[in-house]
């Protein structure tokens, strides 16, 4: 009885607390003060989920049967939540997501009743064995709470009552996601594309890791490096024989050639559509080497082949030529994936062979791939064109590296000719080529320290000449009147080098191309005119310069120079040397005595850089657009190229590219005419009926005309630039004779992007100049 009384008291207290909480809620609603805080809402919502789940579990139980088991409240809630049906769980989640304050309030009321019902059910199950009165009192109340709960759950399941307009809700959700996407795109544009950021970061890291050797001071003139390690040269792959269905024919009959003979035949077959194979010298040299030349392994032809093949005119290479044309087309039509495979292979080779360690820094190698065998072409009418360039073997190659480095391994089954450790030279590997018997080298890339230091020193020497050039000019003028013929010739030769930027010229043998420089000029290369084209004392030059490029120029000279030239050619034949008393070695020795380090090439560099500086100062004015400034730069560069005779043949695609550019210009002119008509109509409409709308339209049309005009001007500048540079090679002087600091300073002073003047390779080569030069630099 005592236990029953305690349970009864506990139940009465619960009832009182329930009624008092309801009274407080009603009072607060009447006074309009029922505004729970956000923290209260969160805690109520969480308690509501667990109590709602327990109530649903009570409802989903087996009728009115209750087990007399005491369960911890937390464990009971967990278990009940797991036993709830998925449908009820979904409804419960929808309730907790509701944003309406009214729904939250109703939910709090309901969950409080359900919690009380749950506790009453537990008390009733405990006391049912002792007293029927407790069950009689609580039954109707629990039943009423159950009915209310069932009604509310049904209402929440009903889509009409829970969501009166679900499609609009979905639209809002979609529009919200689109809005979020738009905001995200705006943020990406503002903050930058992550991929672009990653690339920029990579570039910055690469720049930060770049070796700024110019900040470390000048290296020793004798010792070029302290440590040098590399992998050696990359040898071209071995020859792959032709398929069996591809035949070489001699005198109309198919002939199966030996692998070595066949390989050389393919060299000639690949060039059948080239003008070289139509030249007699090329044909004779090829056929002679094909039949007679021997390698260390075997002769190029077997005895049987040499006995059969006696005349080149009876040889038919057409099938082989067709085969390689088809292979070339296949390479052009490769899929993107196939090209990617080749690109990855090239990258792998570059990573393995294309870099070395120089004084602990990773430096790029210029030409790590050995030249494959083939036929020598040469420039112009070279007497050795068509001769066979043999395959280079490891036994022909000398390796140069530091003594403490790992010596590169030769290909399997081979060995190096020699391994040396000479830090006074800059090459990594060397061999003798068989055409001229001269050494060839693998060197570092132009962007490397060794190359950069050499360039820097060259331009600094040229700048020093600026302080000495007046005294040198006075000296060679005095030499013009010397009693000694040798001194007179030397004075005139230095005058030509200074005024015309001629190369000094080297002595040539009979097996070299007939190209000349200043000291190797012959009488036949000049013509003297006392008066020509309203000018006095004119010298007409006509000869083949370096790379068999024709030098043709009519130059007025000083009277004393003209008299000396008449004296030099007196009693000489056309093939005799003009300067027969001097040599290139003697001339450079004289120049070096005038200023240490001075050579004919330094004189060319000085005159080229001085011309560029003067022309840029003259042609660049304030108020120019970037395109106009670039045109001015190219014109200044062209003046240097003309001075140095840097010519080229017109590109094969020149006519077509100019035609396309002219079509663009014509189309742009038509667009401008149309835009002007629309502008005229807009002006008339605004004048007849002025309004904000017509004013905005008028401004829009004016801007369109202005924009199209700027585009037309840009295209016309491109047309002028291309036409003027049709046969002028601007790149040679830019890379070899023009101090890059002039161009960098000009770009910085006139706000021209350096990328407009130098491409990526050139920027790497001149990184030292770009880093150290400010806008006030003057050569």
TrEMBL record:
One GO cellular component assignment for this chain's record is: nucleolus
Origin species, per record, is Cyprinus carpio (Common carp)
Keyword Nucleus listed: yes
The family classification in the record reads:
Belongs to the type IB topoisomerase family.
The entry's active site is 737
The Polar residues compositionally biased stretches are 80-93
Compositionally biased spans, kind Basic and acidic residues: 1-11, 20-32, 64-79, 153-165, 175-209
Q: Which lineage ranks, top first, belong to the organism behind this chain?
A: Eukaryota, Metazoa, Chordata, Craniata, Vertebrata
Q: Which CDD domains match?
A: Topo_IB_C (cd00659), Topoisomer_IB_N_htopoI_like (cd03488)
Primary location group: nucleus
What protein does this entry describe? DNA topoisomerase I, mitochondrial isoform X1
UniProt lists the gene as: top1mt
> Mind listing the GO molecular function terms for this protein?
DNA binding; DNA topoisomerase type I (single strand cut, ATP-independent) activity
**Could you give a single Gene Ontology term from the biological process aspect?**
chromosome segregation
Coiled coil ranges: 325-352
Q: Where in the cell is it found?
A: Nucleus
């Amino acid at each position: 009885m005592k236990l029953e009384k305690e349970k009864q008291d506990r139940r009465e207290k619960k009832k009182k607390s329930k009624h008092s909480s309801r009274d407080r809620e009603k009072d607060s609603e009447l006074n309009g003060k029922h505004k729970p805080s956000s923290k209260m809402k969160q805690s109520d919502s969480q308690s509501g989920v667990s109590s709602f789940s327990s109530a649903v579990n009570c409802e989903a139980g087996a009728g009115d049967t209750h087990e007399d088991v005491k369960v911890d409240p937390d464990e009971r809630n967990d278990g009940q939540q797991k036993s709830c049906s998925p449908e009820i769980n979904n409804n419960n989640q929808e309730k907790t997501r509701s944003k309406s304050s009214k729904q939250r309030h109703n939910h709090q009321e309901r969950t409080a009743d359900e919690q009380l019902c749950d506790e009453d059910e537990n008390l009733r199950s405990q006391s049912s064995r002792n007293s029927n009165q407790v069950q009689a009192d609580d039954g109707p109340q629990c039943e009423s709470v159950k009915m209310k709960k069932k009604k509310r759950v049904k209402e929440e399941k009903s889509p009409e009552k829970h969501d009166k307009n679900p499609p609009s809700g979905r639209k809002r959700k979609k529009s919200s996601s689109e809005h979020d996407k738009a905001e995200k795109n705006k943020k990406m544009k503002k903050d930058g594309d992550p991929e672009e950021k990653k690339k920029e970061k990579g570039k910055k890291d690469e720049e930060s890791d770049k070796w700024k050797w110019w900040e470390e001071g000048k290296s020793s003139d004798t010792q070029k490096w302290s440590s040098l390690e590399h992998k050696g040269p990359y040898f071209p792959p071995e020859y792959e024989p032709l398929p069996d269905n591809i035949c070489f024919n001699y005198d109309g009959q198919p002939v199966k050639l030996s692998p070595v003979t066949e390989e050389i035949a393919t060299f000639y077959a690949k060039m059948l559509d080239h003008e070289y194979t139509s030249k007699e010298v090329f044909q004779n040299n090829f056929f002679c080497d094909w039949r007679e030349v021997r390698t260390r392994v075997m002769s190029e032809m077997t005895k049987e082949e040499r006995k059969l093949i006696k005349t080149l005119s009876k040889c038919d290479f057409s099938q082989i030529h067709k085969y390689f044309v088809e292979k070339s087309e296949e390479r052009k039509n490769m899929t993107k994936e196939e090209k990617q495979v080749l690109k990855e292979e090239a990258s792998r080779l570059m990573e393995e062979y294309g870099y070395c360690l120089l004084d602990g820094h990773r430096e790029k190698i210029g030409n790590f791939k050995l030249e494959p065998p083939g036929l020598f072409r040469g420039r112009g009418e070279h007497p050795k064109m068509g001769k066979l360039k043999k395959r280079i073997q490891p036994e022909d190659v000398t390796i140069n590296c530091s003594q403490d480095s790992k010596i590169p391994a030769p290909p399997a089954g081979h060995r190096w000719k020699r391994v040396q450790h000479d830090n006074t030279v800059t090459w990594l590997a060397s061999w003798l080529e068989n055409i001229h018997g001269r050494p060839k080298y693998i060197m570092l890339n132009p962007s490397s320290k060794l190359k950069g230091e050499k360039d820097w020193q060259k331009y600094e020497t040229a700048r020093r000449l600026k302080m000495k050039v007046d005294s040198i000019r006075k000296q060679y003028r005095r030499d013009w009147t010397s009693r000694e013929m040798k001194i007179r010739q030397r004075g005139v030769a230095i005058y030509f080098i200074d005024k015309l930027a001629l190369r000094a010229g080297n002595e040539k043998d009979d097996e070299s191309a007939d190209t000349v420089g200043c000291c190797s000029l012959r009488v036949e290369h000049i013509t003297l005119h006392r008066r020509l084209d309203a000018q006095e004392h004119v010298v007409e030059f006509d000869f083949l310069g370096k790379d068999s490029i024709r030098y043709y120029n009519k130059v007025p000279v000083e009277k004393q120079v003209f008299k000396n030239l008449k004296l030099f050619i007196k009693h000489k034949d056309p093939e005799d040397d003009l300067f027969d008393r001097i040599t290139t070695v003697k001339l450079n020795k004289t120049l070096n005595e005038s200023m240490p380090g001075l050579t004919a090439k330094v004189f060319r560099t000085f005159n080229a850089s001085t011309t560029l500086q003067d022309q840029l100062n003259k042609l660049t004015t304030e108020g120019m657009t970037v395109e106009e400034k670039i045109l001015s730069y190219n014109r200044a560069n062209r003046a240097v190229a003309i001075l140095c005779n840097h010519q080229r043949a017109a590109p094969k695609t020149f006519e077509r590219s100019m035609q396309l550019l002219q079509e663009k210009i014509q189309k742009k002119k038509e667009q401008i005419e149309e835009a002007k008509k629309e502008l005229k109509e807009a002006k008339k409409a605004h004048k007849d009926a002025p309004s904000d709308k017509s004013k905005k339209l008028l401004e829009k049309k004016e801007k369109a005309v202005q924009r199209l005009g700027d585009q037309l001007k840009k295209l016309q500048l491109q047309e002028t630039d291309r036409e003027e540079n049709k046969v002028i090679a601007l790149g040679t002087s830019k890379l070899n004779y023009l101090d890059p600091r002039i161009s960098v300073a000009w770009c910085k002073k006139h706000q021209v992007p350096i990328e407009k003047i130098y491409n990526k390779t050139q920027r790497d080569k001149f990184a030292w100049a770009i880093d150290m030069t400010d806008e006030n630099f003057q050569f």
